[in-house]
Amino acid sequence: MKPITAIVFEGGKATSSVVLSMLDVRKAICLDNIETLVNHPHYDRVILATNYPDLAEEARNMGATIVDTSDWLPFHFGQALTRIVREFPMERALYFSGASSPLISYDEFTEIAQVLNENENVVYVNNVQSADIVAWTPAQVLLDMEPPELDNALGYELRYQNHFTRLLMPHSAGIHFDVDTPAEILFLKLLPNLKPRTRKAV
Question: Structural domain of residue 116, as residue ranges?
């Protein structure tokens, strides 16, 4: 199995009390997934792009590579991702935002790695039009693309700018559920098998 590089973005600036109230949960979800990936044999590197010093420190202590985006202003998602792929050469990449997958399992990360090893010129997404989880190979094609402004367009642009085969991830709560609003945090509270930091944060 050839290894995958995982790239996680989690950052920004809290512009309201609602966003601020969700921040600890988002960071907890992010750290739980980083911990899973740094201990997963199919992933050789986990890169966290963030402007949160506390999150960066905890992730670094787990073994993640940290990219400080504090001075990447004005922030442009696609340009930031391209910069990371250029700085850290990789063949197979998985991207997701920090709070996009609180329920994703170890086995689902395994399955993503298997798909990238069994296919060439492919983009593997959890949503056809607005993907939160995007895996693709070869990763370096990003360097020759017009980078998308928003992460939800990444899967679409990888497919159409490179004529990639698009494959869709199997439907599951782990693949589709993300945290965008306080309502989703309330739903998480009801679930019995959350990862440890997420359970504590909700």
Answer: 4-201
